[in-house]
Amino acid sequence: MAIPDNPESGPRRTRGRPRGWDDKTAQNTIKSLDRAMAVFDHVSRGSGLALSTIAAETQESPATIYRILVTLAGRGLVEFDAEAQLWHIGPHAFTIGTRFLRRTSLVDRARPVLRRLMEATGETANLGVEREGAILFVSQVETHASIRAFFPPGTLSPMHVSGIGKALLAAMPQDRLERLLAGQDFASFTEHTITDRDRLADELRRIRARGYAVDDEERNLGMRCIAAPVFDMNAEAVAGVSLSGPTSRVTPDAVVGLSGEVIAAAEALTRAIGGVARREV
C-alpha cells in the first residue's frame, strides 16, 4: 500500500535521502567522524605507524590521534602492536571490505574465470579495478608453484607500473585519461619503470593495438605481468584481468602465447557480466 505524504513535512522523500541530501556544507557533516575516517584511511595505507608519525602526517595533536585510534581499535578497525609500538589496520576492516565486494557480481563471476586462467597458464591470476587513480586488487587465484606473485585483495598499485593499470589507461576515453594522468607523479620503482609521460603515451598506443598490457619488471624486479581490460554493458573498461609470475617462467618469448589466455579470460568475464568489448578500428 502506498504511504501518503505527511502534510506537516510535505512530499515524501526517497528512503535513505533526507532533506538537504545535496547540501554538503559544514552543518551537514560530522567533523569528528570525518577526522576519524581520515586517520583510519591514513593508517590503512601504512605498514605500521607510530602515534607521533600519524599525528605529524595528519597535522593533528597526538592526544586527538590517540583518542581516535582507541575508538577505532574498539571496533576492530585498527590494532596496536605493543611490542613495536605501531598502529596497523585491524581485522574488522577486512570484514567490512568483503561486504563491499559482495555488492557486485563482478568478483563472484570472476572467480571461475581466474581459476581457469591460473590452471591454463600455471601462473597467479588477478582481478583489479581502478580506485582514485590507483589499481585496487579485489580477487586472486594463486598458482601452486613455490615461486609466485602475490597481490592480496586490498593491495593498491600505481596505474603506470601495473599491467592492469596500463590496460585500463589504454581503454579510457582521451579526456578522462588526460585528467587522470595529470594527477599522477610517475614514481620510479625499478630501472624499468616508465616515468615519462610521452613514453607512457607510446606504450598505451601499443597496448590498444595488441589488446593487452605488460608490466615488464616495472614495479618489482624479477616479476612480469600480462593484463587485459574487462568491459561493462556500456563498453566501458571497469576492471582488468592479469596473470603474474617470475620472469624465469613468464619470459618475453612466452608473453605472446600467455597473452592470448589473458585476453580470452578478460573476454569471458566481459560476457559473464553482460558486457560488450570495445573494438579498436
TrEMBL record:
Coiled coil: none annotated. Gene3D superfamilies: 3.30.450.40, Winged helix-like DNA-binding domain superfamily/Winged helix DNA-binding domain. GO terms for biological process: negative regulation of DNA-templated transcription. InterPro entries: GAF-like_dom_sf, HTH_MetabolicPath_Reg, TransRegBhcR, Tscrpt_reg_IclR_C, Tscrpt_reg_IclR_N, WH-like_DNA-bd_sf, WH_DNA-bd_sf. The keyword Transcription applies. Residues 1-24 are annotated as: Disordered. GO terms for molecular function: DNA binding; DNA-binding transcription factor activity. Residues 92-275 form the IclR-ED domain. Keywords: DNA-binding, Transcription, Transcription regulation. SUPFAM superfamilies: GAF domain-like, Winged helix' DNA-binding domain. Residues 30-91 form the HTH iclR-type domain. This is IclR family transcriptional regulator, acetate operon repressor.
